[in-house]
Amino acid sequence: METSEAEKEMREWCVALPKVELHAHLNGSVRNSTLLELAKELGDKGVIVFEDVKDVIMKNDRSLPECFRLFDLFHILTTDHDTVTRIAKEVVGDFAAENVVYLEIRTTPKNNEAKGMTKRSYMNAVVKGLKSVEDVDVVLFDSNLRNDETPMSDLSGDTKRKKIYVRLLLSIDRRETTSAALDTVNLAMEMKDQGVIGIDLSGNPVVGEWETYLPALEHAKDLGIPTTIHCGEMKLELSEQQVPNRKEIQAMLDFCPQRLGHVCCLDDEEWKKLKSSMIPVEICLTSNVMTGGAPSLELHHFADLYNAKHPLSICTDDSGLFSTSLSNEYYLVASTFGLSKTELFRLAQGAVEFVFADDEVKKSLRAVFERAAAETLAS
C-alpha cells in the first residue's frame, strides 16, 4: 500500500535524522533483553519472583500500572555496580545506533550501604560504562575534543565511525532530604571533569515539597551548574494530593531553570508565564500520554507550544519503559501534527541551542546539522 510505503520511508528518514536527546533517564532506557536476563538472574537468586515480571518485561504495550511494576525492578537492579556499568554502556550504544549525536543522560546517584554503594561509586560505575562503549566513539570530556571532531550522521552518507557526545545530569529525587540533595549538587561539581554537566529534579510528583529541594537548586545556580526540572508532569486522579500543584508550578517558573521537563498540567496563567519566560521545554509525547499528562497524542500540548514558536526539544523520557525511541518520537510528531521533513529537521536542529554543554560542543553539533541540511534539504 502507498500509505505503508510512505510511513516506512518516513520512519527510516527519522532514524537517519541527526538528533539531540535532552531528557532520557538511564534506568528507564534499559533494553528489554537485558532486563529479562537480569531479572532471571535475580529470580534464580531468590531476590524476586521472576514469573511475576517476565510477561511485563516482554510486552511492548505496557499499561501504566505495569510500568510502575518495572520501576521497582529498576531500583533493585541498579544497586549493583557491574549492572549499572552494563546498562550505561548499552544505553549509549542504543541511542548512537539511531543517530543521536548528543545525549544527556540523567540518573539519581544512589547510596546503598548494604551493597557497598555510595553516590560517588554509583556515578563511577556509570562513567565506566560510558568509557567502555566500543561500537561508537563517545566524546565524554571537553578536553578530548578537537576542532575536527564532530559526530557523524547517516544522513551524510559518511562511512566514518559514529561519534556521540554524552553528558550526565545528576537527578535529585523528590524523596530525598535537603542534605541529600545538596550532596548530589556537590557531587556534580566534583565530577564536572568526568562529563557531569547539570542537575535534574525528578521523581514521584506527589512526593515531597518544593522548599525541600530549593536550597540545593539555588546552590547549583550559585555554582553555575545548569538545572532542569520536571514540572506539572502528570495528573493522578486517584491521588489524595492532586497534581498539578499550582503553588509548586508557580515556584518552578519563578526559579527560571535552564530547561523544564514535561509541563503537561498548566493552567492558562501558567502557560502565559511559561511562554513569556521562553524556558525551553523537553517534550516527551509517548510518556505524557502513557502517564495521563496528556489525554492523547492529538491533544498533546506540543502543538500549542510549537505554534507559539516556544523553544522545544523532542525527547523519550524512558525509551525502554515506554517501548519507544527518539526516532519514533519524531515520527509521531510528523504523523500526528503534519510536520514536513524540513520542519522536523529544524526542530531537531533547534535542540542544539538548549544543550548544557559548552559553546565548542554546540559549534560542532551545528556543523553536523549544517552538513546534513546541505545534503538532504537543498533539493
From TrEMBL:
Cofactor(s) listed in the protein's UniProt record: Zn(2+)
Keyword hit for Signal: no
CDD domains for the chain: ADA_AMPD
Record-annotated Adenosine deaminase domain positions: 18-366
InterPro entries from the UniProt entry: A_deaminase_dom, Ado/ade_deaminase, Metal_Hydrolase
Origin superkingdom: Eukaryota
GO molecular function: adenosine deaminase activity; metal ion binding
Keywords, sorted A to Z: Hydrolase, Metal-binding, Nucleotide metabolism, Zinc
One Pfam short name: A_deaminase
Cited Gene3D superfamilies: Metal-dependent hydrolases
Annotated catalysed reactions: N(6)-methyl-AMP + H2O + H(+) = IMP + methylamine
Any single biological process term in GO: inosine biosynthetic process
Similarity annotation: Belongs to the metallo-dependent hydrolases superfamily. Adenosine and AMP deaminases family.
Name of the protein: Adenosine deaminase domain-containing protein
Species assigned in the record: Triticum aestivum
Gene name linked to the record: LOC123187634
